[in-house]
Amino acid sequence: MIGFVRPKLVALNDDMAELHVKLRRRTKNHLNSMYFGALAVGADTAAGLLAFYFAEHMGKSVSFAFKGMKGDFIQRAESHVRFICKDGHLVKKAMEESEQTGERRNQPVFVEAFNAKGELVATFEMIVSVKVRS
Q1: Which entry of 46, 63, 81, 117 is 20 to 30 Å from 100 by CA?
Q2: Which alpha helices (H) appear in the chain, and where do they start and end?
Q3: Over the stretch 63-78, which tens digit does the pLDDT of each residue have?
Q4: How much is the pTM?
């Protein structure tokens, strides 16, 4: 699905991940707004990139998945959408705790989706589940 939607990475660092999903034939529904599935891919990718980012920096193998997701749709996304997750510190903390304890950690992180005008179109709570392997 990520390959089909083709999100583009805008920024990725210790604090946040930002990506962009274009509104086009593949991501547009019959109402000329972004499909729910395309919005879900954007939120999934924004939160998931942080786990991969920290795994790379730690030099560790990490088992990573989403345990849950809650989405609130505020208005139709009738343009390209930016997805921003500013919870890098929470993902890093969960990974550090998993490395220390050897157990899986579940951490809620939040992703916000903005249209081309900078208006909030959706918010997502993603439950990131990580286990650092030794």
Answers
A1: 46
A2: 2-5, 36-58, 88-101
A3: 999 999 999 999 999 9
A4: 0.93
Write the pLDDT tens digit of every residue in 17-54. 999 999 999 999 999 999 999 999 999 999 999 999 99
Phi, psi of 52 (to 5 degrees): -65, -40
Cα dihedral: 3, 7, 13, 16 (round 10): -120
* Domains detected in the chain: 2-133 (3.10.129.10)
Here the tokens at position 123 are: 């918010």
**What is Dmax (Cα atoms) for the chain?**
49
DSSP 55-69: HHHHT-EEEEEEEEE
Contact between 122 and 46 under an 8 Å Cβ cutoff? The reply is no
pLDDT tens digit sequence for 123-132: 999 999 999 9
